[in-house]
Amino acid sequence: MIQTAEPVAERGLDWIRGGDEAEIVLSSRVRVARNLQGVPFPGRAGPEERAEVVERVRTAADRADLLDGGYIWEVDSLDSVNREILVERHLISRDLLTDRRGPSSAALVLADGSSCGVMVNEEDHLRLQALVGGLELDSAWRQVDLLDEEIGAVLPIAYHHQFGFLTACPTNVGTGLRASVLIHIPGLVLTKEITKVLEGISQVGLTYRGLYGEGSEVVGNFFQVSNQTTLGKTEEDLIDHLDRVTRKVIDYERSARAMLLTEAPAVLEDKVWRAYGILRTARSLGLEEMMNLLSGVRLGMSLKLLKSPRVETLNELLVRGQVAHLERAAGGSLSEQEADVCRATFVRDKLATDERDAGQAPADGSSDTTAADGSPSGD
Amino acid sequence: MLCDDCRENHAQVHLTSVEANDMRTLNLCVSCAAARGLSSEEAEEASTSETPPLVDFLAQLGSAGPQTPAPSVSEPCPFCGISASDFRKSGRVGCSQCYVHYETQLRGLLRRIHGSSQHAGKLYLSETSDITDRLGQISSMRRRLKRAIETEDFETAAELRDRIHNLELQE
Fold this sequence. Notes:
Chain A is α+β, with helices and mostly antiparallel strands. Chain A contains 11 helices and 11 strands.
């Protein structure tokens, strides 16, 4: 059974603990698009049809083992902060919040203890998805595949013997599968190799975007890479291809970092410590500024120039440093200036905690033994 | 993402073209897309590797007139009522029946977007599925079983083995 949940609380954040290659790959996501037979797609369906889809998915979710003990949120009954929190956690897309002539009848179903679930009535009736930490595409796909089997056994799914699973947008037809990884590749950006790598990614049937999906800008050297086509290949081929290319990009990124460490150790170390110093001491931090600085710190952590913070903390700051999360923590709406101040306080506190736990040298580097000789700072 | 042409404006038109095994993606702003003639009929006729499939398809729908008789697509979808112009505006079809109503055009479009119009992934079995579908399902599950064993995911492997067994019993 699933239960109606309000508010969003801490759910859907399991990925932040990381996984394989977590220092470079923040998360892996797989989703498949599915639609119900005999009902117009959400963009074309009337309010009653959309509401009925939610009820049918709720019934199917109740019977799915994978969702047992899980939750459902109906977007119409959530307040604006909780809606934004779901977007900031990448659990629903901003499109799901778009007002479409009256009640949206959009919903999110989420399993208990994981980020696997169903987005209801976005562009398609169902978007089955799983979000996991690190480079773990296989694990995400297995969850989605299993959920697909369970839901498909209860609900009649729109399927064409030649085109496969039918979707509102022809670019999703076939498997309906979009697999993506969120990768952090500052080494390639700093060595200016990034253009070549991105061109290569485009040439092998993959596409890239910024942190928040289609059309979003690349900030903080975080890139989202995903498959471009969905028809004509098996789900496993699509997943394997993205996995192989991602591992190749990780290799290039490591080479770029090694080169930076050899060719410009002082510049690199300065960049990392400046980023850490600002995050550790600033009294006002913009979101984009925070993300760019977190990129520097993440690089420093990965190269062992810094002993703290932990990868989990870095992931958590990216999520909880966003406006809706800060507003919820503050218990009310915040102006941009107020949010910047809250963000700075939050980041300072988190970094201080990890610093104490790890015995990190203070941000001024006063007791720091230089890392240019390869030894970790603060040892 | 910046426009590939002018490198100044935000890219809003994303086009993928496929020729043989060579796939190319173009990210363009609206004005550069127009500059490439992507909304004109000439673009359709030129039909180079950069011709955008969706625009091509939309042009086909829009030009269905006396010289190009295409009665099946000039009528809206009988199930959801979506017309060629609705589709042109949104780039989305309205229902699963649109794939039957606009089948010929969509097959061409899908081939150009994906390099194929034949689904190769998971099958979906319904009450109307025939023996070919069921055999295809078994073969797809065997492939997934092999993969599960290779990745030492024995829990999934056991489940797939049971499902294959059940499907084989039904034949």
